[in-house]
């Protein structure tokens, strides 16, 4: 993620900063950093609280002002990451009836670093019964020479709600991207409802061809899952001019889930398409508390 001043007590160091170490101390892992940050939200009968905010390595967690009983957290970068060799994870849980929104303060930038080893970035999202979980990070930028494997693992109760957005920018201005693989796995009530795998950048084949990105550099998706079935039964196409990008909003086999996939020439245009999809027909993501 974009580097800012590290928080006091940051535990993760680059391997080169560990004197006489083998990379296992202070969060170092081989040629990179090993770190897991954790967020847990619980409902105390009146509002959502945050009993667990555990910052680690490049992840500094900051509590934001709550909104209507919903707890809000921002993930701030405490060092440049992910770099080659890093093993990073975010573990985010909304317990029963909790309402949680998590954002990032800046874009995540995947860099090569001092090694050609791949970096791993895992995001684990869990929403228990009657919980609401919103994940709205800034874009992930894949830079030349980097190799990043990103995974999302989502576990939802049948009565929970999810709003998940992910955006990727393939390469900085006038440069090709690195190698980026992403996987999104979603289970609802223990049943698999989505398992999606994408690969961009060399050595992947045809990733920038007309059947995939069509020359665009920004891509992303928006996933909405609610307890109630959605009224949309057929795919909805968004975007009039392919040169300005396009999106498709489609119901999944699980009628409580809608997935929007979009491509665009710029991150700003991509965000407009995803916002337009959200406005088409999405029930309120917030949980309705019993008795309210």
Please tell me about this protein's structure.
The protein has one helix at 267-280, and strands spanning 28-29, 32-43, 48-54, 59-67, 70-77, 87-94, 99-104, 108-110, 119-127, 132-136, 140-142, 147-156, 161-170, 179-188, 191-200, 218-225, 236-238, 246-251, 257-264. It has 292 residues and is mainly β. The chain has a domain at 28-214. Strands 4, 5, 7, 8, 10, 11, 13, 16, 17, 18 and 19 form an eleven-stranded mixed sheet that branches. Strands 1, 2, 3, 6, 9, 12, 14 and 15 form an eight-stranded mixed sheet that branches. Strand 2 and strand 3 (48-54) form a beta hairpin. Mean pLDDT is 87; it is low at 1-26 and 283-292.
Helix content: under 10%
**Mean pLDDT value:** 87
How many angstroms separate the termini? 40 Å
Sum up the overall morphology in one term: globular
C-alpha Rg (nearest Å): 19 Å
Write down the secondary-structure element order: EEEEEEEEEEEEEEEEEEEH
What structural class is derived from the secondary structure elements? mainly beta
Main sheet specs: 11 strands, mixed
Gist?
This protein has 292 residues and is mainly beta. 5% of the residues lie in helices and 47% in strands. The longest helix has 14 residues.
List keywords for this structure.
single chain, 292 residues, mainly beta, 11-stranded mixed beta sheet, 8-stranded mixed beta sheet, 19 strands, disordered N terminus
